[in-house]
Specification:
The protein contains five helices and two strands. The chain is mainly alpha-helical and 142 residues long. A hairpin with a 6-residue loop joins strand 1 and strand 2. Helix 2 packs across helix 5.
């Protein structure tokens, strides 16, 4: 996601709607979208907004325990640029109320993360057991 800082509006290209997409092809335009979405903070942020709805920056920061403020801002900008998150400001509120919520497109991909989150929660213990077994088998390799 750090690539965003160097991204300029003219770096975006129009994609032929008839082009076949393949995320495994490094030259395919779908690859950079996939890479943005596959970022751990992006997936967690989408899941949080799916569960809790639109949130203030501080609420989102608390809901994503362990994320730095810099990474939170960077990820929000990337997801906003990708059309998945909408930043809305209520200038009538004092101080102005800024909320981050999912767009329709963001809601669509956030819903797709539900299965991954569910599987992870159900199978985390198995994965940790596999890691311990692997580490024991490879302890002498270090």
């Amino acid at each position: 996601m750090a690539k965003q800082e160097g991204t300029k509006p003219d770096d975006v290209r129009t994609i032929d709607p008839d082009r076949s997409m393949d995320v495994l092809d490094a030259a395919c335009p779908s690859r950079d979208v996939f890479v943005d979405l596959a970022d751990k903070w992006a997936l967690l942020m989408l899941a949080s907004m799916r569960q809790r709805g639109a949130q203030r920056y501080s609420e989102l920061h608390r809901s994503l325990g362990g994320i730095s403020r810099k990474m939170l801002s960077q990820t929000l900008r990337t997801l906003e640029r990708d059309g998945l998150v909408l930043r809305s400001v209520d200038p009538e509120a004092m101080p102005p109320l800024v909320l981050y919520g999912l767009t329709d497109l963001g809601g669509e991909i956030a819903e797709e993360t539900r299965a991954l989150c569910s599987w992870t929660e159900k199978r985390a213990a198995h994965v940790h057991e596999a890691r311990l077994a692997y580490d024991r088998r490879h302890a002498s390799d270090v």
